[in-house]
Amino acid sequence: MRFSRLFAPTLKESPADAEIPSHKLLIRAGFIRKKASGLYDILPLGVRVLLKIERIIREEMNKAGAQEVILPIMHPAELWIESGRWDAYGKEMIKFEDRHGRNYALGPTAEEMITDLVRKEVKSYKDLPLNLYQIGRKFRDEIRPRFGLMRAREFIMKDAYSFHASDEDAEREYWNMYETYSRIFSRMGLQFKAVEADTGEIGGSFSHEFMVIADTGEGKLVFCEKCGYAASTEKAEAVKPQIPENRESLFREIEKVSTPNVRRIEEVSEFLNVPQDSILKLLVYIVDGKPVAVAIRGDKDVEETKLKNVFKAKEIRLATDEEIEKFTGQPKGFLSPINLSIPVYADYSVIPMVNFVAGAGEKDYHLKNVNWERDFKVEAFVDVAEVKGGEPCPKCGNPLTEKRGIEVGHIFKLGTKYSEAMNATFVDENGEEKPIVMGCYGIGVTRVMAAAVEQNYDENGIVWTPEIAPFEIIVIPVNVKNDEIRETAEKIYEELKSKGLDVLIDDRNARPGFKFKDADLIGIPIQVIVGKKISEGKVEVKVRKTGEKIEVPVEEAIERALETLRELQVR
């Protein structure tokens, strides 16, 4: 490809609304352009990256025994009504009527569509197992699209669905997909972790997220370097502590203290000169319309997905100030668990707490030496705190490591949630009709492109891994008006192309510095620079990732470029 013909409008400055590196750099380097909130044009450089990502996905999915299909993006409402998700999915689903007044949705996911296809065609256990996948557009009307391709309203996704005659076979395929996903992301040259995860709206008995490690990631994960345990913080388990021995003998008398205008945990800690872990934090949540008090150690935070799962709730939210007053009769910031008229559920972190500080239920006052059981009733101790780095691993007890990450893939063991709702059955070897057991496996293709940038960039631009770079090598003649420079660059370019490589030649009549900046910004792994030293029979091979420049004779340039490229590739 010739740069003079390439549609890659690069920019010197980042757009004002771009917040994270991938958003800024993909726009600056000419990979994408914003069309509207959460909607992006994918330009030729971006398409080249996406096609390479899709090629790796297809190769590994096909190798794993899956088959590709293409499903409509318009989903008939009756299928979603049948599964019970037409109203439950939420406002993210874009709904509309056709000219005949029939209700449709733009597909945010395809469990209903694929289950409908399979239930019409699969009749016997002999037709199973089956794994079908597609790569195509999905639509979710995000309440707040942000971070470019990371959270867009329209995106490209690979979604696969497997169908089985038994739970055991569904689990076999689940781990087959787990290994397949591991190979996919490894081949892309990404640093990632597979972590236990919440099943969310998709449902199922268990799931794993594949998270690209990046400091700018929206999600958090913890993992144990000793035993391999890894989980998103939405799923990570806390170790349940033991109740202290002779606990009651340590109890002291409650003491009421004045704390004027001191509400927040940090303020209480400083005012009373006590550590935050000796203060009880009390929060009021509305759980499926009913108020519940959640007690947690002052230095910890409630992980609301875990809380939602504890109550098997459809919806949870923090109570408003008015609701707190209504349901407890106490002012926010001074809530007391004593004589509370709503049930109190306490996080595991409260179990070892003795003689702690809590609100007095009265404005500008707190209580010292409060103790659960003696002073207030706990309905149940539950695991609802966000697990952080340094806490013990729930499997082996060693300290956990905490990182931020970007979810790029998610696999679910669905079971019979959709097949039972939609009457997708098969006849087993004994002639008995049974629901098909299902699995679900997704990869955010456009998200992978953004996540790869979040993990691989520097102050000069993107640093693509060779496996998904738009071009593997760029040849840069510093002065196209110089015959020797231009002709040498053209010869190198043609020979690299003949070897099957993706090569770009910057044949523009532009200043060398301009060309170098564009090459670094776009992030092509290897640069072959043909400059003034051609008079001495030498060119430079530059490694984009390290900035290292190697001066080599012209006749060795191609082999050195190939050798350097191989060193960068995933082994």
Automatic annotation (TrEMBL):
Q: Where is the Aminoacyl-transfer RNA synthetases class-II family profile domain?
A: 38-466
Q: Where in the cell is it found?
A: Cytoplasm
- By its UniProt entry, which Pfam families does this protein fall under? HGTP_anticodon, tRNA-synt_2b, tRNA_edit
Matching CDD domains: ProRS-INS, ProRS_anticodon_short, ProRS_core_prok
EC code(s) of this entry: 6.1.1.15
Q: What is its main location?
A: cytoplasm
The protein's UniProt keywords, in alphabetical order, are: Aminoacyl-tRNA synthetase, ATP-binding, Cytoplasm, Ligase, Nucleotide-binding, Protein biosynthesis
Superkingdom to which the source organism belongs = Bacteria
Task: Give the family per the record.
Answer: Belongs to the class-II aminoacyl-tRNA synthetase family. ProS type 1 subfamily.
What exactly does this protein do?
Catalyzes the attachment of proline to tRNA(Pro) in a two-step reaction: proline is first activated by ATP to form Pro-AMP and then transferred to the acceptor end of tRNA(Pro). As ProRS can inadvertently accommodate and process non-cognate amino acids such as alanine and cysteine, to avoid such errors it has two additional distinct editing activities against alanine. One activity is designated as 'pretransfer' editing and involves the tRNA(Pro)-independent hydrolysis of activated Ala-AMP.
| Domain-level remarks | Consists of three domains: the N-terminal catalytic domain, the editing domain and the C-terminal anticodon-binding domain.
Q: How does it assemble?
A: Homodimer.
Q: Report what the protein is called.
A: Proline--tRNA ligase
